[in-house]
Amino acid sequence: MYLSRFLSLHALWVTVSSVMQHYPSVWGHYDVCKTQIYTEEGKVWDYMACQPEARDMIKYVKVTLDPPDITCGDPPETFCAMGNPYMCNNECDASTQELAHPPELMFDLEGRHPSTFWQSTTWKDYPKPLHVNITLSWNKTIELTDNIVITFESGRPDQMILEKSLDYGRTWQPYQYYATDCLDAFHMDPKSVRDLSQHTVLEIICTEEYSTGYMTNSKIIHFEIKDRFAFFAGPRLHNMASLYGQLDTTKKLRDFFTITDLRIRLLRPATGEIYVDEQHLARYFYAISDIRVYGRCKCNLHATGCKEENKRLLCECEHNTTGPDCGKCKKNYQGRPWSPGSYLPIPKGTANICIPSISSIGTNVCDNELLHCQNGGTCINNVRCQCPPAYTGILCEKLKCERDPGGCSQSSGPGVPSRGPLSPLAALLGVTGLLVF
Fold first, then answer.
1. What is the pLDDT of residues 319-360, one digit of tens each?
2. Beta partners for residue 150, in sequence order
3. Is the dihedral of CA 413, 417, 419, 425 positive or negative?
4. Which one of 82, 222, 293, 307 has the fewest CB atoms closer than 10 angstroms to its CB?
5. How many Å separate Cα 418 from the centre of its chain?
């Protein structure tokens, strides 16, 4: 009987091996995947976990404005020059290409002179607040790899909030507050990223260093991604393995750099002073000439490529995974629960390949030569074993009493096999009690 069981197990192992011949390790090290890392010599490629190359994500963004009619030019209006807020003879006219400032000019390649930019209406309805929400949506989960950079042509706003969503805009959470006076605007003490540490890297701060008005060379606002990476990877990001290890083991840290949407909430335009000059309201508006967002498709370390299909980014999933983020196992490859890939152990990581389901391993569950049904079971059409009342399992190899609270006792009957240590294959298949000699 034991020989018969051994031969049955051997045949099942042969079947599993033939299906999994392309996977030398069930858990799977990353032997062919490359990751872009930073060194003192610049960006280089190293073999590590599978993930797509970082790219300019603005190429794939959809932008919406709220209120939708906040863009200047309909009807035409005049505004003050950027460099001289008292020279108010510039015109915004949506019906004339040279004078129009539509939202897409936040992302275009600079070609016209002067620089192209989106522009809001002026603060003509003062004292009603001039509020604008700019929402950037990707319809895809992405992981940020570089600083978010916003370039203003109107002077940086006195008050602004950068927000993120992880659920396609259903809920939002603040990323960072910006103000000329953080305490007055948001009841927060001003801080910079330099004031943070590994332990406080997830703290939401308010910063005053990006909120000056019309000063020369004061157009850019940053949300510092690399400075936060540096707390784990060193000031020159030369130890990315350390960062990857932290991202792998700390879900909140990984989620901090993950988004589906960004929202720029403009709450008060650059005024240059405490009080608004009500005689020259055409001085106050928002204008953005460039937004930069660099990142990669989140594929749960199961893909090296990400393609655009029907105006949507999709991971080119490997490791028998599927879904827009490679977030589940393919049909017939659910032999164990899906798991994201891992950067650990450094340097090769663990692929966590989805393995074949038992039901998909082969068409013959039993036959008359090697794969005998156990414990008196009967083979039905080579596809299933019909088991006697006391037994269950693919090959009738399990005692039903094992599922009872009291377990199996001596009264379970003669011939009950004793339990020995499980082989890796037995553990994989959920088969017990087959290797007793």
1. 999 999 999 999 988 888 999 999 888 777 888 989 888 666
2. 221, 291
3. negative
4. 307
5. 48
